[in-house]
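Ligand: GLP. Inputs:
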Amino acid sequence: MLVVIIPDREKASSQAAKIVADQIRRKPDSVLGLPTGNTPLGMYSELIRMHREEGVDLSRVTTFNLDEYFGLKREHPQSFFRYTHENFLDHVNIKPENAHIPDGASKDFSKTCADYEAAIKNTGGIDLQILGIGRTGHIGFNEPTSSLASRTRLKTLSDETINDNSKISGDIPTVAITIGIGTILEARNILLLAFGEAKAEAVAKAIEGPISSSCSASALQMHPHVTFILDESAAAKLSHRGYYDRVVEQTLKLSPERLGHSND
Ligand code: GLP
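Predicted complex:
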């Protein structure tokens, strides 16, 4: 596990974009797992800039969104379909047929979930899963007590998440389709971004707490290639800050590709 603490949120977002762009340069047909929320917005903007100004080519990239509100049509203003198109997909050259987002308006949700899992497998699996984290420690919409082996399914949202997300988007559905923790753990690499003091407790539990379904993100401790990118406030409750900084220094020397420096 690599814990990268970057005081400035803008620089942290650029660092995340650099890791994603480096993944795409090394493997142009990469499969990316995409999050929504406020946290990745800076990373998406920077990737769009890199596409426009530095020639980062996403024409062979495939994407799978983590989740979608259940019951919302694609065109609904609060759908993650709209969010992902407006903030990322409409501004880069990913082919529409390669951008996958669960269909929240599906009548046969069991089939939709099974088909989504199958589609991920058919592409050869996710190369880089990008994540945010909720205050409940959720990744995707895997709320506390989600099975750590869960697959894509419907999940009831917690009161805390409904409260947090409706502050941003107004009334939202209370159920969502989300890929599972088991699905996330099958990604080859994982990048989790967390900014702001509201995330500090969830981040500390995820990185230093026991592995428990009470904090879904703690399951990431079982994954061999996870990078956390945090700002100071999100890192505030970590106990081993000095150690994490030393690990980052060593990684820059020994495995610079983990930090998006493979072409430097
Ligand atoms: C939502 C999404 C998560 C996201 C989380 C945090 O519930 N399903 O994927 O990580 O919220 O959102 P924000 O980045 O806005 O804090």
